[in-house]
Amino acid sequence: MSLPPPRHSFADDAQGIAFGSFMAAVSVVLLTHLGFVTGQTAGLAILICYGTGWSFGPVFFAVNLPFYWLGWKRFGPTFVAKSFMAVAILSALTMILPRHLQFGAVHPAVGAVLVGCLTGVGLIALFRHGSSLGGIGIVGLYVQDATGFRAGWVQLAFDAVLFLVALTLRDPVTVGWSFLGALILNLTIAVNHRKDRYIA
Which among 77, 81, 78 has a CA at the least distance from the CA of 89? Predict the structure, then answer.
C-alpha cells in the first residue's frame, strides 16, 4: 500500500504562486503591447483599460473583488487567500514590469503563441497550488450547482461576449490573433492540467 503524497508546504505554495503570477504578468505586458484581448476577468479588465485608458493593475484588482465572497463560500478561505495574493502580485507586477521589460517588433502569430503559453504555464502553476486569477470560473461553478448548466459553457459564453465587445475597440485582425492566443491558452490547460498529477 503506497503512502499518500506529502502536501505542499507554505514555501512550496509561496514560490508556486509567485511563479504563476510572474508568468501571467509577463504575458499581460506582451498582450497589451500587441493590443490583444483575452478572456475571463483579465479580458474584462483589459477591455475596460482600452476603453478608458486606465492602468490594468488597479482595474484587474478591482474587477476581482466581488468574486472573493463567492470563492469563500464555494472553495473556502484558503483558496480565497491564495487567489487574493496571486491577483495582488499580478496587479503590482503589471505596473512595475513595463519599466524594466519592453518589447520591440513582435509578429502577431508569435505573440499569440507566446501569450497563450506564458499564461497557460502561469495558470497551471497557480491551480497546482490551490489558487486562481479570476472569478468567472467561480460564477460558472455556482451556475452549474444551481441549474445544472455546465461551468465550462458559462465561461465560454462570457468569453464570447468579451470578444464581440472587443470588436468595437480593436480591429478584426487583432481580435483574430487574440483568439488564437486564447485558444492556445485553453489547450495548454486542457492538455496539461490534471489534478491527479499533483501533490495536494
Answer: 81
Q: How far apart are CA 10 and CA 101, in angstroms?
A: 30
Residue 172's CB is within 10 A of a number of other CB atoms, namely 9
Residues 150, 102: Cα–Cα separation, whole Å: 40
Close Cβ partners of 70 (under 8 Å, ≥ 6 residues apart): 135, 138, 139, 142
Q: Hunting for cell 503570477 — which residue is that? A: 21
C-alpha triplet 93, 38, 149: angle, nearest 5°: 120
Mean model confidence pLDDT for the chain: 86
pLDDT above 90 covers what percent of the chain?
53
What angle do the packed helices 172-192 and 151-166 form, to 10 degrees? Answer: 160
CA distance 30 to 102: 9
Which residues contact residue 75 at a Cβ distance below 8 angstroms, ignoring those fewer than 6 apart? Answer: 138
pTM to 2 decimal places: 0.85
**DSSP structural state of residue 5:** P
Query: Three cell numbers at 48?
Result: 475596460
